[in-house]
Design brief:
Structural class: alpha/beta
Order of helices and strands: EHEEEEEEHEHEHEHEHEHEHHEH
Strand content: 15-25%
Distance between the termini: 33 Å
CATH topology of the largest domain: TIM Barrel
Number of helices: 10
Helix content: 25-40%
Largest sheet: 8 strands, parallel, barrel
Shape: globular
CATH class of the largest domain: Alpha Beta
Bound molecules: phosphoenolpyruvate, manganese (II) ion
Number of domains: 2
Length: 337
Amino acid sequence: MIITIDKSKSNGVIDTLGAASQRSGASIRIIDWNDGSLSVNVLGQIEPDVLIHPAITGVHSATRPYRLASKEHRERTVVRVGEVEIGNGTPVIMAGPCVVSDVEQLITAAEAVKAAGATVLRGGAFKPRTSPYSFQGLGEEGLRILAGARAATGLPVVTEVMEPDQVEITTEYADMLQIGARNMANFPLLRKAGKARKPVLLKRGFSATIEEWLMSAEYILSEGNSQVVLCERGIRTFDTSMRFNLDLNAVPLLKELTHLPIVVDPSHGTGKRSLVPPMALAGIAAGADGLILESEPNPDSAKCDASQTIEPEELARVTRKALALSRLLGVEDLVSG
Ligand code: PEP
Ligand code: MN
């Protein structure tokens, strides 16, 4: 059962629910959605009498395995990354290099990202590379460079964490933690990110079903972190002509299943620079709350994922078109009522 509570009137109600759950051998976990509402996740049974209280605005039985992520008890969640809101109706464009390779590369890339109109800077410090011989990222030095780029541009930063032990240090430098496709089912990492006080960008594993992905989001939510954004980044299919297949069915389906925002990554989803702009716009047309794109001034010299990295001029065009398309679709929604 999930109980929704108006935080401004919650005086004493949590204690009452806690005492009632103890009496019946249930346990409760509280999640703060950062919008004035709390959810109490009740594991077990609770006496129905305690559910009548002015602060309780909803009581939902949990029929989905991903009960906190489910749309059954909540219409939408807006996630804040620094000052940027994801899920408020205007798409958020996140962009930057796949990997941070040095100060100059990142600062020029960050300035170009900002000039292109994107509002969140991406860049990898801890990199999950297929080959152990490929550049693995600069680690903590990369985090420091990212924080420097934030100071220089004002853009909040999203960067990947690969292990539970990296969460603490990454939280100190970054505004959002990325959990990559290869770690979507790394349950100790999900739990640790669930205890962090920073939003999490949870990428879909490339062979994960939608339900498995939502269950991974549930791990983070169930530890108390309400700030989760899902990222569709392509799945692996029988077709080898592209690196991955961007599964845009996922976007409208997730809009039916979950209140969490969803962003689309057409860079990894295609693996091919020329396919990135059209698939970015297709993601917006499908209803995505944002995009995450690999972009830097000299894409061909990128140390990682060069073939899918776009130039800043292209990023600026994609950003302009994505925002215009979203406005157009919003107007259509208003007209058709
Ligand atoms: C990345 O964002 O650079 C990355 C490695 O993404 P994914 O986990 O989706 O492969
Ligand atoms: Mn990459």
